[in-house]
């Protein structure tokens, strides 16, 4: 059984992943801000087969609590071999453009808190010479676009950080998995008009679990986003800047 | 809450537009809006009882968490958006089954309660509502009522079968039944007419938990009312054969411009289906899924009726009137040439339904579906309404998209009593239609 810490456990993608892990009998430590929701999810996961589920209510932006969080999780599960980082906010681009404070807050939530936590996780896993780090980044981090470049900047930082971390931890036998979902139909994106490009969180979750089992490095989900993003990244900046629809 | 969408019910008629509000957190309050609200589960109601044209649909599929399950007593509590299929997937391997299941497992728990659905064991177990231990009802004034056969009993009776109008069912607790395995020992008996159906049914109801009949309603004259009677019990623990769960599902990818169901295909299908078994009786051990949910293996089967959709018609006719009225209905349908692809006949038992607006009542029930061919179809169904009304029966709101306000009030004379319990901020296309609001 895996011993999994899930940060941002009330997010739709994290919950869908947790259900798949529960059905394998894994041990889960759920972290999120909403205590009632965490408890509801924990009870559900126990019924679905998780061998152990414990929760901790924490705003992951309070970086000073990260070390204690890892200790709590390891103590509760009797060790720790997998960390899934799934928290995030969908920055409202227009509002960010009018507020440095909001921009910094979004960068803190979506990038700095992840980097801070992973710094501790990386050292812990490196010393135990085993572990899997799974982080939900985004296709938005592959190239800055006017519609969401604050969010994209944060995700680009996370993706770059993970790339370096993967190389560093490879020698120690620690795996780092970057997940790049496209549009996912979740409460975070409820105000967007949906089209056939949108994926269900269950689909994304099964891609994530399969990637964890296969030891993948970077996964686009659904898979068609890999060629799509390759094309988008290949467009010269001289042309890209005038493509207002992207 | 800006998501607007053309939401369809299972019959793909009528077409309405409403704003969607997706529920994920059972502790959340109802949305602040001036428009009327209506809970929407998995959209398996056929007509407009799950639609709210110009209003708001409270999508409950995100409320899909189990809350508590006692594998010793078989008491299951879960959020209202959990599908019956999801409950079965969890409890069948642990030796439990639903006390009552409708003909599709793709309905939500909340929807099963709000329509007080019934199944092939109605003569034994009554309706779904009879096995609901309690639920929480969220009202638009913010109150959360815990309703059960002993607490807030009037709200319980109003909400079971209450078409989602009394508030939002947030979670519910149901009693499950023990099974030894996932198999059903079944028999299929060919019958040549209605008399034989009633005789076989009377003969079976004591010994068989599940009974239902398929009717060939494309046939007329001497063959009128012929069909196949299916009966079964949960298989014994030492079951000789152990069929596997069906794997792989087909899906109808799109709705063709016109219905694939027409008088020619209907006649052909019905004749072939009736003659598919050569002997009068066949026996088999079946997995529960194909036994209870034969149509679930063809996803989106409702699309075969084409863009105009189809109309379901299910009526119940009490007691002694049942035989003659059923014959009259079948004759009218055969005469119209608009026979139904799937016609289902079953005897309802005497256990009274707990909901004030519940549809099942002791007697015979007939369910049919018709491609929507415009006014001719509506005229036929209105003429069937007249037969049902004369016989003192009722038409099932969960399957209806067209009954008149007058007929509804005849079929459900208790409606004024029920109306007092409707949440002031809740409404539906169905309710506005039958109340002529």
TrEMBL record, chain A:
InterPro entries for the chain: NAD(P)-bd_dom_sf (IPR036291), Sc_DH/Rdtase_CS (IPR020904), SDR_fam (IPR002347)
Pfam family, one: adh_short
Keyword field contains Nucleotide-binding: no
Keyword Protease part of the UniProt annotation: no
Gene3D superfamilies: NAD(P)-binding Rossmann-like Domain
GO molecular function per UniProt: oxidoreductase activity
Keywords: Oxidoreductase
Family: Belongs to the short-chain dehydrogenases/reductases (SDR) family.
Name this polypeptide is given: Short-chain dehydrogenase/reductase SDR
Organism, scientific name: Candidatus Competibacter denitrificans Run_A_D11
TrEMBL record, chain B:
GO molecular function list: FAD binding; oxidoreductase activity, acting on the CH-OH group of donors, oxygen as acceptor
Record carries keyword Flavoprotein: yes
Pfam families for the chain: FAD_binding_4 (PF01565)
The FAD-binding PCMH-type domain, residue ranges: 1-179
Gene3D superfamilies in UniProt: 3.30.465.10
UniProtKB keywords: FAD, Flavoprotein
InterPro entries hit by this protein: FAD-bd_PCMH, FAD-bd_PCMH-like_sf, FAD-bd_PCMH_sub2, FAD_lactone_oxidase-like, Oxid_FAD_bind_N
Protein name: FAD linked oxidase domain protein
Species of the source: Candidatus Competibacter denitrificans Run_A_D11
């Amino acid at each position: 059984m895996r011993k999994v810490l899930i940060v941002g456990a009330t997010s739709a993608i994290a919950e869908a992943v947790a259900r798949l892990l529960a059905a394998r009998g894994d041990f889960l430590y759920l972290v999120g801000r909403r205590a009632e929701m965490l408890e509801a999810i924990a009870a559900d996961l126990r019924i679905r087969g998780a061998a152990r589920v414990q929760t901790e209510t924490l705003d992951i932006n309070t970086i000073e609590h990260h070390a204690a969080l890892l200790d709590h999780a390891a103590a509760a599960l009797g060790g720790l071999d997998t960390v899934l980082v799934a928290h995030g906010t969908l920055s409202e681009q227009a509002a960010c453009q009018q507020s440095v404070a909001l921009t910094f807050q979004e960068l803190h939530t979506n990038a700095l808190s992840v980097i801070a936590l992973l710094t501790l996780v990386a050292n812990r896993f490196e010393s135990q010479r085993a572990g899997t780090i799974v982080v939900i980044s985004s296709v938005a981090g592959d190239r800055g676009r006017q519609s969401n470049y604050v969010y994209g900047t944060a995700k680009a930082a996370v993706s770059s950080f993970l790339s370096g971390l993967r190389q560093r931890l490879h020698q120690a036998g620690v795996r780092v998995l970057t997940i790049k979902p496209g549009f996912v139909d979740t409460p975070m994106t409820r105000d967007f008009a949906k089209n056939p490009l949108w994926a269900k969180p269950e689909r994304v979750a099964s891609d994530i679990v399969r990637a964890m089992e296969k030891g993948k490095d970077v996964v686009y989900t659904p898979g068609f986003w890999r060629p799509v993003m390759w094309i988008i990244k290949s467009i010269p900046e001289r042309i890209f800047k005038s493509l207002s629809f992207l | 809450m800006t998501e607007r969408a053309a939401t369809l019910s299972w019959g793909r008629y009528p077409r309405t537009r409403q704003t969607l509000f997706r529920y994920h957190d059972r502790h959340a309050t109802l949305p602040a809006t001036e428009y009327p609200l209506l809970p929407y589960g998995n959209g398996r109601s056929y007509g407009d009882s799950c639609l709210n044209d110009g209003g708001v649909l409270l999508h409950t599929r995100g409320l899909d968490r189990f809350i508590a399950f006692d594998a010793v007593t078989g008491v299951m509590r879960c959020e209202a958006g959990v599908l019956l299929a999801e409950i079965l997937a969890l409890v069948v391997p642990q030796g439990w089954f639903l006390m009552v299941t409708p003909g599709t497992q793709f309905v939500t728990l909340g929807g099963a309660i709000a329509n007080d659905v019934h199944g092939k064991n109605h003569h034994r177990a009554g309706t779904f509502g009879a096995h609901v231990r309690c639920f929480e009802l969220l009202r638009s004034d913010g109150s959360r009522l815990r309703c059960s056969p002993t607490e807030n009993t009037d709200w319980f009776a109003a909400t079971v079968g209450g078409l989602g109008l009394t508030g939002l069912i947030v979670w519910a607790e149901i009693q499950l039944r023990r099974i030894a395995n996932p198999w059903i020992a079944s028999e299929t008996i060919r019958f040549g007419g209605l008399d034989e159906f009633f005789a076989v049914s009377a003969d079976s109801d004591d010994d068989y938990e599940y009974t239902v009949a398929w009717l060939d309603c494309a046939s007329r004259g001497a063959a009128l009312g012929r069909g196949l009677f299916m009966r079964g019990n949960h298989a014994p623990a030492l079951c000789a054969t152990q069929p596997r769960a069906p794997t792989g599902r087909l899906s109808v990818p799109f709705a063709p411009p016109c219905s694939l169901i027409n008088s020619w295909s209907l006649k052909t299908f019905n004749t072939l289906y009736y003659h598919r078994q050569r002997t009068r009786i066949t026996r088999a051990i079946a997995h529960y899924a194909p036994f209870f949910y034969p149509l679930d293996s063809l996803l989106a089967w409702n699309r075969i009726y084409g863009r105009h959709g189809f109309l379901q018609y299910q009526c119940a006719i009490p007691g002694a009137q049942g035989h003659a009225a059923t014959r009259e209905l079948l004759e009218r349908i055969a005469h119209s040439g608009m026979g139904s692809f799937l016609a289902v006949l079953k005897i309802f038992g005497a256990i009274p339904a707990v909901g004030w607006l519940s549809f099942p009542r002791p007697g015979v029930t007939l369910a049919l579906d018709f491609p929507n061919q415009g006014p001719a179809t509506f005229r036929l169904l209105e003429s069937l309404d007249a037969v049902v009304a004369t016989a003192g029966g009722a038409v099932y709101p969960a399957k209806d998209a067209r009954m008149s306000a007058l007929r509804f009030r005849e079929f459900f004379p208790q409606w004024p009593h029920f109306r007092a319990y409707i949440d002031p901020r809740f409404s539906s296309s169905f309710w506005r239609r039958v109340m002529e609001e």
